[in-house]
Automatic annotation (TrEMBL):
It comes from Nesidiocoris tenuis. This is NADP-dependent oxidoreductase domain-containing protein. GO terms for molecular function: oxidoreductase activity. Substrate binds at residue 113. Residues 17-289 form the NADP-dependent oxidoreductase domain. Signal peptide: none annotated. The record marks 80 as: Lowers pKa of active site Tyr. It holds the Pfam family Aldo_ket_red.
Length: 314
C-alpha cells in the first residue's frame, strides 16, 4: 500500500510517511537503503546537506527512474540549508550544491534547518580559538528570502522551517512573500509537541516529526520504544512498538520520517496503514509527554545564540 498524502498550503502533496537519512554514512549504504525503500513503496526522503549523503540518495533515485520503477514526480525530496549558509548569497550557493549533489534540477521541499546562524562560509562547524562554534547574527528572515528566490527560480517546489519555535515562525510569517508549508521538529510521545503542532496547524503549516522512533542517546537515556504503555498498545494490535510510534504521528496528521538501514525495519515501518489506534490508545500515547525533559536534540553548540529556539515554552 502507498503512503497517504498530506496537502500543503501551496497545493503540493507530500507522503505522510517518509524515510529519514541522517547518519547513513558508510559508503554505499544510503544508496542501497534508498533503493530498497523505493522498492518497498517509500516515496518521500528526508535529507540535508549536513547529512553528507545527498549524492547517494540522488544516485539511488536516478537509478530507479532509469529502471522505470518511478518517475521524478512520484518522489518527494526534502533537503535543508545548514547553519553556516544563512547569508543570502551562501544560502543560494548551498541550494545549488544540494541540487548538484542529488543530480536533480529541483527538490520538493527546502527547509531552514535551524533558526540560528553560524559563521558564514563552507565550514559546517566553524570553531573559534576557544574551541566553541562561532556564531553569526544573520537573521533567519534573510535566509528565508534566499529560499523564496529558489522557489521563483524553479529550483524548489516549496519551502519550510525546522526547529523553529512559535515566535520565530510568526516572524517568518510576518515577513514572508511565500508562506512556509512545514515545520520539522523533534516529536515522539516523550515530547508530544501538541502546542506547537496546534499553533502550526492554525497557521496552515504542516508538521513533520523527526526522531519519531527516538533511539537512546546521551540526552535521552529512555525511549518510548521501551515504554510499557507503548508495548502494551503494540501487543494489543499485534504490532511492534516502532509501528505504534509511527502510526500515532500519522493518525494525528503529522508527517513521520523514521530512519533505518535495516531491511526488516524498512518493511515494518512502512507497514502501518492496515490498523487504527483507538481514542484511548491515542490519548495514552499523548499522556507520556515529559515536556522539556523529553527533548533529545539539544544542540549544545548553539545554546548561547540569540536565536536558540528551545528557551521558549514552545
Ligand atoms: N531537522 C532536524 O534537525 C532533524 C531531522 N532529523 C531527520 O529525522 C530522521 C529520523 O530521526 P532519527 O534521528 O534518525 O531517529 P529515528 O527516530 O528515525 O530513529 C532511528 C533509529 O531507530 C532505529 N529504528 C528504526 N526503526 C526501528 C524500529 N521499527 N524498531 C526499533 N528501532 C528502529 C534505527 O536503527 P537502524 O538504522 O540501525 O535500523 C536508528 O537507530 C533523520 O534520519 C533525519 O532525516 C533527525 C534529527 C534532527
Ligand atoms: O538533522 C539533524 C540530525 O541530528 C543532529 C543532532 O544529532 C542535528 O544537529 C541535526 O539537526
Amino acid at each position: 500500500m502507498a503512503s497517504p498524502k498530506i496537502k500543503f498550503n501551496n497545493g503540493l502533496e507530500c507522503p505522510i510517511l517518509g524515510l529519514g537519512t541522517y547518519l547513513i554514512k558508510t559508503r554505499g549504504e544510503a544508496e542501497r537503503v534508498v533503493k530498497e525503500a523505493i522498492d518497498i513503496g517509500y516515496r518521500h526522503f528526508d535529507c540535508a546537506y549536513f547529512y553528507e549523503n545527498e549524492d547517494e540518495v540522488g544516485r539511488a533515485i536516478r537509478a530507479k527512474i532509469g529502471e522505470g520503477v518511478i518517475k521524478r514526480e512520484d518522489v518527494f525530496i526534502t533537503s535543508k540549508v545548514w547553519n553556516n549558509f544563512h547569508r543570502k548569497d551562501l544560502a543560494k550557493a548551498a541550494l545549488d550544491k544540494t541540487l548538484s549533489n542529488f543530480g536533480l534540477d529541483y527538490i520538493d521541499l527546502y527547509l531552514v534547518h535551524w533558526p540560528f546562524a553560524y559563521k558564514d562560509g563552507w565550514d559546517m562547524r566553524p570553531l573559534g580559538d576557544d574551541g566553541k562554534v562561532v556564531y553569526s547574527d544573520v537573521d533567519f528572515v534573510e535566509t528565508w528570502k534566499a529560499l523564496e528566490d529558489g522557489v521563483r527560480a524553479g529550483k524548489i517546489k516549496s519551502i519550510g522551517l525546522s526547529n523553529f519555535n512559535k515566535e520565530q515562525t510568526l516572524k517568518i510569517l510576518k515577513n514572508a512573500e511565500i508562506k512556509p508549508v512545514n515545520n520539522q521538529i523533534e516529536c515522539h510521545p516523550y515530547l508530544n509537541q501538541s502546542k506547537l503542532i496546534e499553533f502550526c496547524k492554525s497557521q496552515g503549516i504542516t508538521v513533520t516529526a523527526y526522531r519519531p522512533i527516538s533511539p537512546i542517546d546521551e540526552f535521552a537515556p529512555e525511549t518510548p520504544l521501551n515504554d510499557p504503555a507503548v508495548k502494551k498498545i503494540a501487543s494489543k494490535h499485534g504490532k511492534g512498538a516502532g509501528q505504534i510510534l509511527i502510526r500515532w504521528q500519522i493518525q494525528r496528521g503529522v508527517i513521520a520520517i523514521p530512519k533505518t538501514v535495516t531491511k526488516q525495519r524498512l518493511l515494518d515501518n512502512f507497514n502501518v496503514f492496515d490498523f487504527t489506534l483507538d481514542d484511548e490508545d491515542m490519548s495514552t500515547l499523548s499522556s507520556l509527554d515529559k515536556g522539556r525533559a523529553g527533548r533529545a536534540i539539544i544542540m549544545p553548540d548553539a545554546v548561547e545564540h540569540k536565536d536558540y529556539p528551545f528557551n521558549a515554552e514552545f
